[in-house]
Amino acid sequence: MIKIPVLFSGRGELPHYETPFSAGMDLRAHIEAPITLKTLERKIIPTGLSIALPEGYEAQVRPRSGLAAKHGISVLNSPGTIDADYRGEIGVILCNLSQEDYTISSQDRIAQLVIAKHSQVQWQIVGALPDSERGTRGFGSTGKK
Fold it and tell me: Per-residue pLDDT tens for 51-76?
């Protein structure tokens, strides 16, 4: 387990894992007054959380499945990436894909935060790529079932 420095101006508790095998922690809305998202509207919702990730890690902001399935609320740039050198407050770009307005209240769970390792690469220009079984067959090429 890695330790990550945080600044937290939110109310309540820090994001935490709800179950022993959870991959993500719920982010909560840190707002003074309720915010209503109209159909197809998007807004950045503050979380009160700033973090300092170690080099080689990112934080991914992902939708909560319950909000998406029950209310059509999703994270617009899913997954949103928080880079290791970003020190500002994490904001969540929520959008309402339903036909009804949706109101977000203070402390509502609005998204998940997953911490993940990543690698950086250097491109190597070549004349041809190595063969593979799939080759250049693209979208839908592996079949429907």
Answer: 999 999 999 999 999 999 999 999 99
Helix, strand and coil percent figures for the chain, each rounded to 5: 5, 35, 60
| Rounded-to-integer distance, Cα 72 and Cα 27, Å | 18
Tokens standing for residue 45 = 């919702």
> Do residues 34 and 108 lie in contact, with contact meaning Cβ atoms separated by under 8 Å?
no
What one-character DSSP code corresponds to residue 91? E
d(CA 85, CA 134): 37
Residue 10: the pLDDT is: 79
CB-CB neighbours of 57 under 10 Å: 16
Q: List the chain residues with pLDDT less than 70.
A: none
* Stated pTM of the model: 0.89
Contact 22, 67 (CB under 8 A): no
> What ranges make up the beta strands (E) of 24-105?
25-28, 35-37, 42-46, 49-51, 57-62, 73-75, 80-82, 91-96, 102-104
Task: Name every residue whose Cβ is closer than 8 Å to that of residue 101 and which is 6 or more positions away in sequence.
Answer: 36, 37, 38, 39
**Three-state DSSP class for 66?**
helix
